[in-house]
Amino acid sequence: MEILFITSKNINPFSGGIERSTYILATAFTNIYSHTCYSAYLKRETSNEWPYAGEVLLQRGSEYEQLKEFVKQKNIKIIIAQGSVGSINNIVEKISKAAKDGGANLVFSFRNMPGFELVGINASVLLYRIMHRQQLLNSLEYLIYQTFKWAMRPVIIHKLRKKYVRAYLNADIVTLLSERFVSDYAQIAGTPANEKYKGINNALIFDGCFNMEDYDSVKKKTVLFVGRFEERQKRVSEVIQVWKMIEKNGSFPEWRLCMVGSGEDELYYKKMVKRLKLKRVYFEGYGESRPYYREASIFMMTSAFEGFGNVLTESMQNAVVPVAYDSYKALHDIVQDGVSGYIVPDNDRKSYCDRMMQLMSDTELRKRMAAIGIQKTFKFSIEKIAGEWNSLITNLSKKQ
Question: Which pTM was predicted?
Answer without folding.
Answer: 0.93
